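Re: the multi-chain job from yesterday

Posting the exact lines I submitted so nobody has to dig through the queue logs.
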Amino acid sequence: MLIFTIRRLLLAIPTLLFISFIIFLVVTLAPSDPTANLPLTIPPEVKQKIRESLGLGQPLPVRYFKWLWQFVYIEPAHYLNQAFGFSIDTGQRILSWQTRSPVMDIISQRMPQTLWVVGTSYVVAILIAVPIGVISAYKQYSWFDQIGTFISMIGFSVPTFFTGVLLIVIFSVHLGWFPSIYDTTHSVTDWDSFVVQVKQMIMPTFVLALANAAQLSRFMRASMLDNLSQDYVRTARAKGLQEKTVLLVHVLRNSMIPVITVIALGIPNIFGSAIITEQVFKVNGIGQLLIIAIQGGDVPTVQTITFIFAILIVLFNLLADILYGVFDPRIRYD
Amino acid sequence: MAVGTVRSSKVSAELENAAPVLSVENLETVFLTSEGAVHAVNGVSFSLQPGELLGIVGESGSGKSVTMMSLLKLLPMPPAEIRSGTVGFDGKDLLQVDQQELRAIRGGDIGFIFQDPMTSLNPVFTVGFQIMEPLRMHLGLNKANARKRAAELLELVGIPSASQRLRDYPHQFSGGMRQRVMIAIALACDPKVLIADEATTALDVTVQAQIIELIKDLREKLGMAIIWITHDLGVVAGIADRVAVMYGGQIVEYASVAELYDDPRHPYTKALLQTLPRHEGDRMERLVSIPGQAPNLSGPLQACPFAPRCESAHDRCRQENPPLFEVSPVQKSRCWLEDQEVVNA
Ligand SMILES: Nc1ncnc2c1ncn2[C@@H]1O[C@H](COP(=O)(O)OP(=O)(O)O)[C@@H](O)[C@H]1O
Ligand SMILES: [Mg+2]
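And the result, structure tokens for all chains:
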């Protein structure tokens, strides 16, 4: 297993390099101008100077390798210096074109907000989806299953920007129960501030959880149904086991194998879906940062965030494979 | 046409008189599916004497499995519905007892072995866990004792280095070995009845022979009654005391093994015997199957279900379903030909 993991990690390096180059090309060749948002009173010669100072005059390969060097060497070295007091020689860190501050610092400021909302919603989604999937499959075509099907169809087909706005209209504008804007500066110090935090998290969490739970519960249901018709279930019943044991030990254990991998594979994706939800609820997380960076033509920021997403996808793919091996004794990676 | 070694019909007649361990009366099971009803079991009655080995034979789709699963309500309900019948076991009617009592009998007093050993075991649990489950459940053994007994069981069914193999997963066993594991599970709680549904069908011929030897052996040692289901009359000849031949969800012939092979009465039985491979010197003759299609089971039987494929069918066969005629104390046949003989006599 360890050898498998190391081999896969090594194999991931060329893949990631290739991805990073593609991202670089797409982001760089996109017709956007980092100076476009500057006031019109600034004369064109000055704008040209600004562009050159951002490194835009250099040839493409130079720019790519410069960024790559910054990402794989300077940034990690910087964090090592910070964390352990090392004094590794570093150079210029990746700077945002908009704010002129290090992109990684902005990302680590924004990450907690995203993780809170996205992480909570994913956990909520799993906690909702697994039991719903199990019951729906066990009581196939019952009213419970029908309602579950209907709700997950809604969660599946209605985009989050719609459910988000709908919730804001109902619960913030009309009922006034929850705030429509997520206040990131709010810090939890006592019970009351905790309640405030929960209140402002409810709607964005719910929107994301609904979308994820819809998909996961369908998947769980399908996996359970697959297994319920297997011969080993009949054997378990013929042994005289209780229905509870048959379902929650024998069938669930098998059904979870593909579901766990889907959960692992889905983790990077939720950052993607968070982009929209963060816009709707004004959560200033990674998603919002990315949107603003795209609008401002901030190539280093866009490129870095996108590449981090790519790394997450590759890592969680590996994690999914490893989990498969952990949960299914038939899979051996050696 | 004597095939294999058979017990004398006197033994069978004696068997008939003892108190049966299992007696099934007039069992009827229907599947109510979206494409309409399937009358899979249409009034099956049979009994099983202590220590007896009853063979149940019939083509695929004749209702053998559904009959057996109905006994312990192992069918998915719906779509299955047991319309009528009684299953007498231990002074109770298994179709009437509550879930808890039924569960105590499943895997406790009645053990089941299924056709496909590759899929009948749960792939993600060790073999030891799966054998220990009924032991802990029915006999209330603690973990250590259950493990000890599980190792004994594996040894009993002929699996070498049994106590180490308890830790292995099903995929680490061959098909024949997995079927031995299934047998160990079925025998775990010393059942009075063992039901083996096509237990050797999925195995290749040599392994099949080994498993049959094992069953014979275990029967000698443990003395339980066995219902051996197969679509191969040849297999049953060597091990059964009596044989029930099924067609269209009915028992069409029910006889001691000697009578069945020496003097088959029902045209379907005769046809089945003709499909058996016969030894011609060293060469085996190829199997031929019975021409014609499987019966239509979408409604209650109005006529003999075998009539469309039967060479001796006459008008009456197409209008009325025959009852089970008693040809002799040890042989019954569900065929109008028997009625004529009675009339002619
Ligand atoms: N779940 C089910 N739904 C509908 N029909 C079924 C189902 N299971 C079995 N049957 C039908 O019941 C009949 C008897 O099947 P079965 O007992 O499995 O035959 P055998 O074991 O003799 O090969 C067949 O016609 C089959 O199509
Ligand atoms: Mg069958």
